[in-house]
Amino acid sequence: MTTEVSDQYLAGVQRTDPDIFRLIKEEERYQVESIRLIPSENYTSRAVMEATGSVLANKYSEGYPGRRYYEGQRYIDDLETLVQDRAKALFGMAHANVQPYSGSPANLAVYMALLAPGEKIMGLALPHGGHLTHGWGVSATGKFWTSVQYEVDAQTHRIDYDRVREMALRERPRIIVAGATAYPREYDFAKFGEIAREAGAYFLADISHISGLIVAGAHPDPAPYADAIMTTTHKTLRGPRGAMILCKEEHAEAIDKAVFPGLQGGPHENTIAGVGVALKEAATADFRAYGHQVVANARALAAELRERGFDLITGGTDNHLVLIDLTGKKVIGKKAAKALDRANIVGNYNTIPFDPRKPFSPSGLRIGTPSVTTRGMKEEEMRRIARWMDEVVENVKDEDALDRVGAEVRDFCRQYPAPGMAV
Ligand SMILES: *Cc1c(COP(=O)(O)O)cnc(C)c1O
Q: Can you give the pLDDT at residue 8?
């Protein structure tokens, strides 16, 4: 928490472009002084930021190690090979492609590799927690391929594996996707693998949200069952923004070809270096403890919220996120999220399964513990946060009350240093 580190790091920006400098510094202060509960965000280490901001950004290296379309790869091939090796070791898969720019293009690459245009994708419906790129209509994945979408159970709000199986056998998709952005329970990857085999489909595990929990041993591992695994690198995995595809050897060539030259040009080797640093950090005992604490914290947050009359989808959580149905609190998701933000608590408004409201103004709130856990907060702090959330939701119209909570939150946050921050 010394000021020199970051000020030195941005000294050039400050000299050249005071406007951008000011905005970065303000965002930095915001990240320090707020309780960040967006479940897809985190704080990377200073080391990850440095690698991502390094001279590697100056390179062009289309192709793969040993097979480049550019000269000048004296160090780049070793770098990318090292990161691939770390990814393979950590996730226990035969092949790794570390070039995808982000999660959405990475999913597109998997479909491009394994499906012909128009073949069928079966994924979890967006309003039920699935991702756009799992075949939702407005996404390229729902336009260039046929898609069928499964839903969570109307009563339990959990995935009903019997119904997934029925749909798979009836629809015969070419690929089945497991994974979500707003599902607070464990995925039974063994079951998904079995269903996919029975239906003659490939199985893609999109573990973007939970990859950090998986490598920490805090969530079951899809590696034994999946044809391909896609993960973003910037969520619980705590790397820079990017993505990776891991797959069985038999799909390696098709996946590589789909990423480049199928969809992308030059890989961002600076990001790949940042991913490498994050993977090294993720292989430590500290990171294992982190992953388990993320889950323990989410459980503590959920328990205290429930105690205070909040209605939770599925009644609680097994992972890093909690999905709240605000209907009983008589406030809509957007209003609650806005009031919370004013009080320096940042979450997402979100649809809930079978939401009677429109996606742009849904009934739910999605929160998670990856960021607060990175700052060293534990169960006791989660209970404190739940009490503040309750106070805010009960006082959404009272700006003085919100500002009072906001000041308390700011003081509280000051006690929990965030990695890489200087304010
Ligand atoms: C975040 C996420 C993605 C997409 O990642 P972007 O980097 O935002 O494109 C894909 N799938 C799931 C399940 C995600 O959570």
A: 74
| Burial zone of 159 (CB within 10 Å; 0-12 exposed, 13-18 middle, 19+ buried) | buried
Minimal-distance CA residue to ligand 1 atom 8 = 103
Pairing relation of β-strands 228-232 and 95-97? unpaired
174 lines ligand 1 (CB under 6 A): no
- Percent of the chain's residues with pLDDT above 70: 98
User: Which residue has tokens 């979890």?
Assistant: 124
The structural domains of the chain, with segments of one domain joined by +, span: 51-282, 293-413
What is the pLDDT, as a whole number, of residue 2?
A: 40
Query: d(Cα 168, Cα 94) in Å, to the nearest integer?
Result: 27
CATH architecture of 293-413: Alpha-Beta Complex (3.90)
Calculate the average pLDDT of the chain: 96
CB of 271 sitting under 6 A from ligand 1:
no
**Short-list 348, 274, 289, 272, CA closest to 44:** 274
CATH class of this structure's domain 51-282: alpha beta
**Confidence band, pLDDT 50/70/90 cuts, at residue 423:** low
Looking at residue 164, its pLDDT comes to 98
